[in-house]
Amino acid sequence: MKKSKSLVSILGVCIMLFSFCFQGNVQADVNTVQSGKIKSGNVTVWEVENVAKVLADVERLNLNTVNVPIQVDIPNVNSANMVINQAQKKQAIILIQELLKRNIQVILEPFPFIQQGNIGETEWNPSNINDFFWNWKTVVLQDIFNSITSKYNIYGLKIASNFVNMEYAEGYWNDTIDFVRQQYKGNVLYQMNWWLTASWDPSYEAKFKEKINRPYLKKVDIVSIDSWFEVSGKRNPSYEEVKQSLFATTVYNRGQNVVQQLEQLHNATGKPVYFGGFNVPARELGLQNPWNPDVSNVFSKDVQLNGWRAYRDVLEPKPYFKGFSIWFIGSNDSNHSYQIHSKEAEAVINGWYRK
Fold first, then answer.
1. What is the CATH number of the domain that holds 156?
2. Are the beta carbons of 259 and 244 closer than 8 angstroms?
3. What is the pLDDT of residue 227?
4. Total count of domains within the chain
5. pLDDT category, 244, cuts 50, 70, 90?
6. Is 31 within the bounds of a domain?
7. What is the pLDDT of residue 20?
8. Residue 107: which of 123, 92, 85 has the closest Cα?
9. CA pair distance 177, 192, nearest whole angstrom
10. What is the pLDDT of residue 31?
11. CA angle in degrees (0–180, nearest 5) for 292-295-299
12. What's the pTM value of the predicted model, to 2 decimals?
């Protein structure tokens, strides 16, 4: 019995050493990414502990940045009460330390985890807007300043994550940005949700113009978009069809000119535009509802490849476009539709912004 315990102990040490060596050898070739551009990957709140997989994905996709979430627990969709999940934050800090050792930039995202993650952040609609902003600043952001940004060199901080129902509160956001600037000297990002317009309904255009002309957007460093634009209604659109659809979307014949609107956002704010969360699910109809990883049960590597190729070819030359973050990296679920499923798509991403 004593002998077998000793053997188990030796095996355990060997496994730990192997894991350490593997992580130590993974290096992001950050020098191959064009200066000033962001090539990032998002990690989910429940996968920040997958350090080795995150690092492997960074290397495989030639990323120079990782979006690290800090879980913010919120009891229900109308609550203005919130608290940072300290256990998850501890794991996130371990990941941050490993990334910074390898000169990989970190963008922090206080991530709303509503009703144990059962409700998306776009649904959050606090019943008391004053309490929401007070708690967002003093409970969430202040904790992040005290425990992370004051101790580590953090490239960027998202002060909002798709807060559709709080977007209107311009004075509160101005105050929040001032509060952040006093304690954090890195890049301040405001992340908005994607939007719809339709040539046959002028009300959508009016909402879009209101969105991009919020005065507080001029006070941040980077305008981030959670980018799930409904581009093509075809089950398997070709590369050329996807590319054309970025200038006139075909879903419900909306005719939305996504590329033109990104430029309008840049012109209105004077800020670089960044896709803070973006991917194309490897499913038929993946470009119709890219926000839905289960939009179809028919697997399609081509939809994912054609989507990434078209977006890259259209946006890479645009000087106002800051970059993108892949939703998601660091997952061991190899069958998930948001995994990059082909070597061809991997090569497209790997080569984007390569020197």
1. 3.20.20.80
2. no
3. 98
4. 1
5. very high
6. no
7. 42
8. 92
9. 15
10. 72
11. 120
12. 0.91
